[in-house]
């Protein structure tokens, strides 16, 4: 049997209560209240929720909420400012200082700025690649061209898209996979293996040789145009690939070639023609002593220097790979994502799933070897862009809203609440009593963000919102290295690990 219940009754104020107690002839209003107290709505099963939003209940809740002076103060304060600013935890911000016990000798400068684009992965990786070049040429500061890799990535992603569209031609266009492929075929985002593929195939050039133009810094309009054309091309390729007529299928390769040529034309007109990967460029520069120098190299030759052994011969970029922490999946397991990449003949996306302790110990070993670390995280969560502090306590939600957030890391990934949306660089760590306390982070949002471009990440924030670190496999145990020999578990294209930073 179900349990019947009454809707909550709004309490009388004290004056009305006394009046009711002192009269023998209830007023019409009192009679309505008494009637309401004695009559119940139709019974519901105990486990069955109220099916509608009751205006009476909303009014009661509203009066209760506004009866608390703290809530009225919150409404006034939040009316003219972001709650993240109003509820900023000043003590947490002040305690998260830029003091570190272990710091790499060459962090690299200047602080870079990706502007209004999603190229963080290219900025994070080139901020790592520039370190051996700074040492090799005796530079005080240096910046690689992110636009150069950006250009080739657009071409490669278009080709990857065409190939996957042809592979999935027999699937219905409304299928989840095809819809995901059509969603953002030339996204600005990427992953470590994808940038490694680009550097190996096209090399690198200094920023002065191929600087950003407007469309590199403000990529949304370019991406819209490219995506519109790619979707148009996709329908033609799908039709040809599914056609029973040999003549149509014979046109498939030619049509794909023509479409890729059209995308190449658009990208070149929008970003400008880049240096040819196997033709020499000339770069003139001043070294740290102020002496003028000049080199003549191909982008491929120049890029090989970034992939050469680093300064102390302990870290090699050719051995770098991604450790990830995804508690949804089995630890000590090799993971990859279906139909996600850029260079068709390149290294597929490879993730080694480990516990956070293993990931952090590998990062510390990299820093001890003097090498910066590429990492992927969810920077939008509990991160203060002004102070550059990433700390779960940086915003006091309970103070303003009387709520806390209870999802764990696995649940946030599974529900879409969190994902690896941003890539940055770790250059230092502060260790107390043998344990990391906070980490120094180089961002790519310019000197106006954080502490002149630098952030502080608390160790607790790292546990909750960091998902990836790119390390030399010599800095992990043989047990972890052997994971690379496994056949990977293939995650679907729409999995959270398929979100590109």
From TrEMBL:
Q: Where is the composition biased (Basic and acidic residues)?
A: 28-39
Q: Which UniProt keywords apply?
A: Cytoplasm, Hydrolase, Mitochondrion, Protease, Thiol protease
- Keyword Oxidoreductase appears in the UniProt entry: no
InterPro entries given for it?
Answer: Papain-like_cys_pep_sf, Pept_cys_AS, Peptidase_C1B
Q: Where in the cell is it found?
A: Mitochondrion; Cytoplasm
**Principal EC category:** hydrolase
Pfam families registered for this protein in UniProt: Peptidase_C1_2
Q: EC number(s) of the enzyme? A: 3.4.22.40
The cross-references to Gene3D superfamilies, in alphabetical order and at most eight, read:
Cysteine proteinases
Name the catalysed reactions. Inactivates bleomycin B2 (a cytotoxic glycometallopeptide) by hydrolysis of a carboxyamide bond of beta-aminoalanine, but also shows general aminopeptidase activity. The specificity varies somewhat with source, but amino acid arylamides of Met, Leu and Ala are preferred
Q: Where is this region: Disordered?
A: 1-53
For whether the record's keyword set contains Protease, the answer is yes
Please list every transmembrane segment annotated in the UniProt record, as residue ranges: none
Source domain of life = Eukaryota
- Output one GO MF annotation: hydrolase activity
Q: Which CDD domains match?
A: Peptidase_C1B
- Per its database record, what is this protein's job? Has aminopeptidase activity, shortening substrate peptides sequentially by 1 amino acid. Has bleomycin hydrolase activity, which can protect the cell from the toxic effects of bleomycin. Has homocysteine-thiolactonase activity, protecting the cell against homocysteine toxicity. The normal physiological role of the enzyme is unknown, but it is not essential for the viability of yeast cells. Has aminopeptidase activity, shortening substrate peptides sequentially by 1 amino acid. Has bleomycin hydrolase activity, which can protect the cell from the toxic effects of bleomycin. Has homocysteine-thiolactonase activity, protecting the cell against homocysteine toxicity. Acts as a repressor in the GAL4 regulatory system, but this does not require either the peptidase or nucleic acid-binding activities.
Q: Which family does it belong to?
A: Belongs to the peptidase C1 family.
Q: How does it assemble?
A: Homohexamer. Binds to nucleic acids. Binds single-stranded DNA and RNA with higher affinity than double-stranded DNA.
Any idea what this protein is called? Cysteine proteinase 1, mitochondrial
**The organism of origin for this protein:** Aspergillus lucknowensis
